[in-house]
Every structure is written in C-alpha cells, then in structure tokens.
C-alpha cells in the first residue's frame, strides 16, 4: 500500500501503504553528518509535528481547530470541523459559545486515516453532513500507522484503540459540544484495520446505535468483544473496497466480513436483520481506495461525500459514480477481485 505523505515533507515506503504515488511528492530518505556522527532522518511523526496546528476554515465555511493533547501518555493530534458557535468558550475558537463538557445537538463523524496520514491532512469529512460534524485523528506512531506495526500486524492496536476512545469521551467535550449518542466512524485502509480489528470489539459498546464505514481495509477481531450482541445488533457496518484491491487485503477483508457476520448470527439476528446492518461492495474498477476509479485522494473523498447515504439511518446507499453499494453481506462474503496489486 502506498504510505501517505503531506506536501513535500512526508514520504515513507513501509508496510501497509495508503495513497497513490502522484498524490504528493516523495521525500528522499537522507542522513546527515553532525559532529562526526550520523543523524537519521526524522520520522513521519516528527516531521508532521513541524506542521503547526491552529484555526482554519473548512470547505463548507465551518471552522477547523487543529490541536494536540496527551492521552494515556500518547500525543494525540486531531482536527475538529464545526460551526464556530459549537466550539467551547475555552477552545480558543472565536465565536465559541458552548460551555466545556456540555452536550450539543450535532453528532460527529470521526475519521481514522490510512498509513502515513494522507487523509488526516486532506480531512475529507470536514464538511458538516446530515448534522454530523467532522473529526479526524492522527495516529500516535512514528510512521503514522494506526495500531503501529506493519501490514496486518498491528502491534499497538489495543493501546491506540483505547486512546481514540478516551480522546472522544474525555478530551473532545472540552473542545466542542456534540451529541454523545451520535458518534460515527470512518476508516481508511490502516484506519479500517484498527476499527475492525480493535476498536469496534473493544470500544464500540460506548457508541452503540451508530455506524462505521470501513474503506479499503478490514481485519478479523484481534481482541475480545465487549457487549458483542448489543453492539452488533445496533451498529451499521459497511465494507467498501475495489476490484484491484491490494493483494494483502484481498483475503483479509472477506475474513473480516465473515467474522462480523458470524457474530450477528450467533447473536440471533435473522438474515434480513444482518443484511440491513452489514453491507459490502467492491464494484469500483480501481486500485486501493480508488473508489472513483482514478485516484486515492479523490476516491476517499467520494466515499466521504456519501457517508450519510451509506451509513446513517434512512440512507439510500447511493455513491457518486458507483451506484447503490448497500449489498447485504449474507451470500456476498467472498468478494471476487479482478486484479492483484
């Protein structure tokens, strides 16, 4: 998979990659000699830290706040995009009127990027959609891999999953007023691995009744499932891939689909109930995350723009350029891919 880069300063070619080579220029790996010693090039995390946060304007005119907090000993950088008045009076956003810790009327859609962080910087879910404000988090890992490790082996998955949960519940209310019963999630590639393998089973009990969009990635359960029956019976999950998905993920995504379907069956859900909650599509003729058949960045954006159609209650499943993607998983578990990439 192509690892994400940001402008000209982030370039890595490690493990599970996550964007097209043309998405941004690559940084050459270099070493410098200082005082007779060799200094290794800074990590992606260190380079990203040089990009300042602060306040900016979203594509829909909302206000974006980019800041970093420490959660469980991990530096967690995140962005929130919301109408200015939804920010708290202590957030530093001009126009913020909410008292810290108070609930708001709007929900949130939290996106976890792919390996290297491309979607953190692009922030494809920044526009308010169907009463959901956008949030994106940056993986607290030197390579900007959610769950650390590489490939399908996410060695820090449990710790990262816990940090995401604790940031949402303990830190985010100090920044923005949101409806705690309307917390949805989007994964992109490596972010989808963390969500499916670790976060949903360990933490989704705190966010029951919402949904998760798993783009171009899926992993079997890596930890014990807390309140499995309650979570599975109330959570909408959509697996979205492409015909030319990465070879590494072509068996992993179907395995994740089967694992979640089996949980629903074990929980007593009927075929109709399962298919209403768990859906899958890999019809786009494109490579990894190229849901528009063209490019990683624009492909991810296509799915972000259709989030309410695919995940939120009453959605018609329509995605621009693809059509209706809401195919029930029962009978569609073993995806057919046309290429090895």
User: What would you call the structural class?
Assistant: alpha/beta
Which bin fits the share of residues in helices? 10-25%
Uncertain stretches: 1-36
Span from first to last CA? 9 Å
Specify the CATH homologous superfamily: Alpha/Beta hydrolase fold, catalytic domain
- CATH architecture heading: 3-Layer(aba) Sandwich
CATH class: Alpha Beta
Apparent shape: globular
Largest sheet: 10 strands, mixed
- Please report the number of helical segments: 9
Q: Mean pLDDT across all residues, rounded?
A: 90
What can you tell me about this protein's structure?
The chain is an alpha/beta fold and 341 residues long. The protein has a single domain (55-328), classed as Alpha/Beta hydrolase fold, catalytic domain (Rossmann fold, 3-Layer(aba) Sandwich). Helices cover 25% and strands 20% of the residues. The protein has helices at 44-49, 118-122, 157-171, 190-203, 228-232, 249-266, 271-277, 296-305, 307-310; strands spanning 32-34, 37-39, 54-57, 63-71, 74-82, 107-112, 132-138, 183-188, 211-215, 236-240, 278-281, 318-319, 323-324, 327-328. The strands form 3 sheets. Strands 3-4-5-7-6-8-9-10-11-14 form a 10-stranded mixed sheet, with helices on both faces. A two-stranded antiparallel ribbon has the order 1-2. Strands 12-13 form a two-stranded antiparallel sheet. The radius of gyration is 19 Å and the shape is globular. The N and C termini lie close together (9 Å).
């Amino acid at each position: 998979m192509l690892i994400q880069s940001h402008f000209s300063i982030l370039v890595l070619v490690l493990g599970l990659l996550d964007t097209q080579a043309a998405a941004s220029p690559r940084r050459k790996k270099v070493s410098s000699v200082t005082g007779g010693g060799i200094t290794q090039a800074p990590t992606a995390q260190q380079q990203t830290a040089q990009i300042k946060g602060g306040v900016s304007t979203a594509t829909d005119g909302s206000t974006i706040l980019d800041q970093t907090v420490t959660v469980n000993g991990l530096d967690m950088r995140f962005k929130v995009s919301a109408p200015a008045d939804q920010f708290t009076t202590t957030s530093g956003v001009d126009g913020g009127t909410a008292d810290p810790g108070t609930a708001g009327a709007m929900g949130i859609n939290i996106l976890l990027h792919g390996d290297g962080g491309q979607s953190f910087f692009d922030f494809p879910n920044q526009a308010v959609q169907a009463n959901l404000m956008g949030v994106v988090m940056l993986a607290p890992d030197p390579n900007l891999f959610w769950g650390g490790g590489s490939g399908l082996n996410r060695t820090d998955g449990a710790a990262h999953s816990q940090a995401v949960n604790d940031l949402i519940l303990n830190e985010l209310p100090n920044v923005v007023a949101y409806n705690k019963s309307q917390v949805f999630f989007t994964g992109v590639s490596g972010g989808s691995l963390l969500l499916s393998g670790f976060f949903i089973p360990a933490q989704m009990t705190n966010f029951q009744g919402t949904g998760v969009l798993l783009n171009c990635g899926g992993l079997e359960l890596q930890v014990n499932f807390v309140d499995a029956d309650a979570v599975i019976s109330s959570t909408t999950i959509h697996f979205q891939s492409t015909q030319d998905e990465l070879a590494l993920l072509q068996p992993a995504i179907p395995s994740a689909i089967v694992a979640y379907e089996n949980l629903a069956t074990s929980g007593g859900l009927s075929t109709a109930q399962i298919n209403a909650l768990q859906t899958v599509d890999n019809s786009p003729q494109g490579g990894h995350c190229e849901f528009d058949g063209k490019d990683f960045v624009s492909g991810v954006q296509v799915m972000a723009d259709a989030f309410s159609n695919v995940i939120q209650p009453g959605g018609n499943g329509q995605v621009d350029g693809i059509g209706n993607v809401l195919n029930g998983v029962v009978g569609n578990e073993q995806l057919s891919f046309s290429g090895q990439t």
